[in-house]
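User: Here's a chain of 55 residues. Predict its fold as tokens.
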Amino acid sequence: MLEKVIKGAEMAMQSSILLQQELHQLRTSNRHQKEKMTRAFIQDGGSLTGGEGFQ
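Assistant: Prediction complete.
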């Protein structure tokens, strides 16, 4: 009986570790995509002066 409880706890811990790793990868990927979107922003409508374009 105790062996089953230990085995269940080990499986739960392994699952938790895998989920944490996946979450870290997804957050990192999301951060990179947001940075890429910010750099690739194209203004929709309106106009820029020469000084604003260089900022």
